[in-house]
Every structure is written in C-alpha cells, then in structure tokens.
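Please review the protein record below. Let me know how this chain folds according to its tokens.
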Amino acid sequence: MNRACFSKNTNRHEQSHASCIRPLKTNYVRMKCKMILFSSLLALSTTCFAQLSSEKGTSNNENATTHIFRYTNPITRDSSISMRDHCIIKVGNKWYCTGTSNPVWTGPNPGVRLLVSDDLIHWKQHSWLIDASKLSVDCPYNGRFWAPEIHFIKNKYWLTVNSGKVTKEDPKGMSTHSIWLFVADQVTGPYKLVNGPLTPQYNNDATLFEDEDGQTYLYCSGNGLFQAKIDLVTGKLVGGIQKFLDKKQPGYPEWMAGGIEGPFVLKRDGTYFMFFSTWTRGYEVGLLKSKSPLGPWVLASREPIFGTRKKGYRLELAVEGGYDHLKFQDTDDPYCETGHNAIFEGPDGKLWNSCHYLMYEKRPYPYCQTFESWELTPQMGIEPVTYRDGMFFINKPTWTEQVVEY
C-alpha cells in the first residue's frame, strides 16, 4: 500500500481501517485467551500428575532412590580371618573391624588384626595393628590380645587392647592381663601406646564412650562389670575404677549367673544404655540403662535382647558354676554363640549390631550335620538395631538371606 495515498485519504480510509481492525483484534484476544487457558490447564495437569506420582512413591524413579542390602550370616566364612568379639567402625566409605584372633584359649595369639570391607559383605585382612611376632620378650602386653576395640574420639582413633605379659611361669600372660590404651591419627595406624595397664587387677573387654560434654568413660569386665572416668590424653583413670555389677547380683535374673562381659555403651534421648554379654545359656546379650554414665544401672529388659540358647553347650561350665539346673528352650538357630556385641553404622546409615557367630556342633536336622572347616571357628555376624519407645531391639540371629531396603 502506498503510504502517501493512505495519508492523504485519512478521513475516507479511517472508518474502513477501523472496521477491519476490530474483528482482527477481537480474534487475536480470543486466540490469546485460549492459549493462556491451555497453558494453565497443561501446567495444572502436570502439577497434579507430579503430586500423584509422589504420593505413589514415584514409581518411575523408585529403583533410582531405593537401595537394597542383602546379607547372609555368618558374613565371613574364612578360617584365616576368624575372630571373636567383632567390633566394627565405619570410616568414610569403608568398614574396619578388630577382634580376638585365634588361638583364643591355648596361649598367646598373633596380635590385633584389622579387617577392611567396601560393602560390609566381603572382608579381607588389612594389617596387624599390633604384630605379636615383632614385640620384644620383655614387652608388658605380649599376651592374648582379647577383644580390642577402636573408637573415634576428639579427632583421633583410640585402640583399647586387653593383654598381659607372657613369662615362663605364666605362658598365657593371665596374671597380668589388663587394659592398654593406644592412639593414632588414622584408623589404620600406626598406633602409639598412651598408657597401661590401666587397672591394677585383672580386667578385660574394655570399651570407651564419649559423652556430650566431652567427658570420656571406660567400661570393662573382669568377674563382673566395671566403670571409670578416663583422661584420654594421659590414659589415666580419674578417681579409680569401680565394680558396679556382679554376675550373681542380688535381685538379678539367673541367666546372668554364668558370667557377664563385653560392655558397650550408647546414649539415646538422655538415657545411657549398656549392652553386655553372658555365656550362661549359650551366649546372649543383655541391656542395662541409666540416667548417668556412672549409674546406677538397672536392667532395661528382664530378658536378653539378643543371642542364642543351647542347653547342651558348655555343660561343664554350668555344672562347675552351679547353674546347670536352669530350664529353658533352645533357640531355633544353628549357633551355639552369638554375642560379645558392638554397635556400628550400617549401610543404611542406621545402627547395626556386630558380634561373633559360632556354629553349634550338635545342631539338629534340618541343618547339615557335616561341618565346613570355617564352621569350626567363630565368624562375623551382623543384624539391624532399632530403637523405639525408649528401648533398643536387635533382630534375632539369622542364617538365611536377609534383605534390607532403604
């Protein structure tokens, strides 16, 4: 269109132009409104679908967000890394484990073994934190190395070791068996001796617990359970050590009468909980609680919270200890021992239980009567731990595949 002609005929064309533009503008507005309405409906439907998918667990992404951990006890099935009293600690993306290496009863063992795993299922030897073969003959802690534990406190790794001095008169080092404390900057060491022996008498199964105020406590066994404050820097006990519970404590149940050992302490909701083990009816785990880290301690449960019971196991100890009269039902598992536990962070970031699982040589049908070589030695076992209504619970010892989703 010629602009000059249009300008000259403004009056004549103005009405015609206006009559043409109105319906075009009206159609444009209607079209724009429809587009806005369509966009709004599309956004609304997308939001509703997303909300519905979320309520149903986002099935399209379920495999991406749900993890599955499968395990079958015993976890380890290898005589070469057999241990009792497993204590696991997670550092970064790896799990490390110490324990009592074989031989356990016949004399000095080879030292403090450290196992490592990337997935909590496959374990291998990492190193010897203490290699008995490299200790001098006059070393005061070259004995049995029972129940070592590693605890991360104040940005350092603290290793408690229970041992004594081997002599010609005492080839097992039991007369001087007590607690030794070591420290390292890395979980793998090297560990440096801080102090020992920490107590003047026989003590065993030492464990450490750091409270919220930074104070650290030591608990151990030795014909009962003991407790004390400890200064980790010097490795000295503050105010001495106190025995607070005997295996035949008046008013306590008979399933403790054979012996109590292996304390391990946690704090939850202002209450201190102490796991401990007893070998009276096989090997079981009991639980104490207190409002103070130094007691008074009382049973959180009148019955063990975990373990295995076998009437025919260690009968000679029952007769000798005067508790062979106890009547109880065997548990329906193939083990004679599942105990001396410790608590650690599992694959799901929650608390798990570790201890040694030992097969029962008299296990009945339907269990196989033929033993593999590894079944004659203690192996690692793990189970989830739950906390509810002011109480800790541990799944009973399992021997078939378990599946945990998280």
Residues 1-62 have pLDDT under 50 and may be disordered. Residues 10-55 form the longest helix (46 residues).
